[in-house]
Amino acid sequence: MTVIDAAPFPLAFDPATTALIVIDMQRDFIEPGGFGESLGNDVSRLAAIVPTVARLIDGFRAAGLTVIHTKECHRPDLSDLPASKRDRGNPSLRIGDPGPMGRVLIAGEPGADIVPALAPLPGEIVIEKPGKGSFYNTPLGAILAEKGTKTLVIGGVTTEVCVQTTMREANDRGFECLLVEDATESYFEAFREATLAMVRAQGAIVGWTAPTDRVLAALGG
Ligand code: C5J
Questions:
Q1: How far apart are CA 89 and CA 108, in angstroms?
Q2: Residue 100 has pLDDT above 90, yes or no
Q3: pLDDT tens digits, 38-68
Q4: How far is the CA of 163 from the centre of ligand 1 (A)?
Q5: Nearest to 130 by CA among 81, 197, 188, 90
Q6: pLDDT at 167
Q7: Reported confidence tier of residue 221, pLDDT bands at 50, 70, 90
Q8: 30-to-78, 159, 171 alpha-carbon distances in Å
Q9: Is-catalytic flag, 73?
């Protein structure tokens, strides 16, 4: 076993049964002109973590460990998009509408792609998910079961939405989860801080947190 110097206490893990999951580092959330900005968000907050997420991914690749990417997106015919998700609020662009990067959050459209700096390597697993959580209506659970994965190191955006939902789903399924503090971001600083605090509260009620440097140090990087 290897140990990460994490909060609220060290996390022991076996690298052979550990995977990195990078949540929704997509152009529509991170680049100017995408869906995130159309909702009135400052996307530069999310763009700022791209180099750190790249370092985290590189560390897992160098250690020969599994790297999984997710993308929040829907089928072109919108058959996996609940009306409640499409119709809520009054955004200038809705999911499925034509936008500056193709149809918003539709699989195969440029905006749904992962930002080029974090592009998956051939052979890496990419999960397309219609919900906020990465387990809902996806093959992720079956893939992790087949690999014998027990520990998930999690980064990506946004901290309090898709990242936190995925971490809670994974925790309920019996995975040990660590959220990488500087490899996740929110459009709202307070929400990121609150999420980090709440997942590790009450004796790691949802899991652990640690910065990238400590995760990479545990991997020998
Ligand atoms: C959102 C996400 N915020 N990836 N998606 O709608 O967190």
A1: 25
A2: no
A3: 888 999 999 999 999 999 999 999 999 999 9
A4: 8
A5: 81
A6: 98
A7: confident
A8: 23, 13, 27
A9: no
Which of 27, 115, 128, 162 is the best mutation target for the ligand 1 pocket, counting ligand atoms within 8 Å of the beta carbon and taking the most?
162
Which amino acid is residue 96, in one-letter code?
G
Which tokens sit at 146?
């087949």
What pTM was estimated for this model as a whole? 0.98
What DSSP designation does 110 have?
G
Q: Parallel, antiparallel, or unpaired: how do β-strands 11-13 and 2-4 relate?
A: antiparallel
Q: Residue 194, Cβ neighbours under 10 Å: how many?
A: 15
The tokens 């809705």 sit on which residue? 94
**Cα 194 to ligand 1 centroid, rounded to whole Å:** 16
Residue 24 among the catalytic residues? yes
Q: How far is the CA of 133 from the centre of ligand 1 (A)?
A: 9
pLDDT of residue 135: 98
Q: Which atom of ligand 1 is nearest to the CA of 23?
A: 4
